[in-house]
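Fig. S4 source data, part A: sequence.
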Amino acid sequence: MNNHKLATGSHHQLVITLMLIAFIFVSIITMSGCSAEKSTDSTTTQTVQKTSALETTEVQSVLETSAQETAETQPVQAENKLEKEIAPTVEHNVDSDPVPLADGDTALSLEGYGAKGALADTDLTINDMLMYAVQDEYLAHGEYLAIIEKFGDQRPYSNIIRSEETHLAYLEEVYTSYGLDFPQDTSADHIVIPADLLEAAETGVQAEIDNIAMYELFLSHDLPENVFEVFSALKKGSDSHLLAFQKQADKLN
């Protein structure tokens, strides 16, 4: 009887011991799994953080590049805007085979040089008007070039001088359409170089006022379509030049 109880007690102790060992084993495995899972989660989080940091860096780089490109583009855009304001694109249409000029319109009898000569002339022919216009555009080009040579590359002179070259090219188209020889530049004897930039701007203002008045006088006459188109275009260009010189004079005054 006692031996049976002893055997039963030993059996119970063995079962309890095995259960305890099994519990410890399961606990160890569970803890290891949790640790591994935590390690994986940590690694994943670090990877996501690194990716996010990389993407942020790339975005910042793109933004910096965009800002740099904008900063580089703005001066160019400002220059282009100024160029359009000073030398706007003016539409003109020159017929390459117009009705020939009448004999009276080809006569040349000048009363002076450029705009001042035109404004003093009371008997203008088409050829007179064309010659006065060419002379005045040559004179403006020469004066603005002399100002640049004395004071350096200054705006608005550097912009307007290119516009004067365009004006001369328009007039040459008209001469060519009528089979007339385009005049040579004889403006050197009429150029007066100003003492300073304020005087230069004021000279530009007066030159453009005279030029506009000259074209307004010409446009009051009955003109061939070719001549009317070009004189209208040149007056519009001179209107823009006048505004530019007035701004320059106000700035320096």
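Fig. S4 source data, part B ends here. The chain has two domains: 1-74, 87-252.
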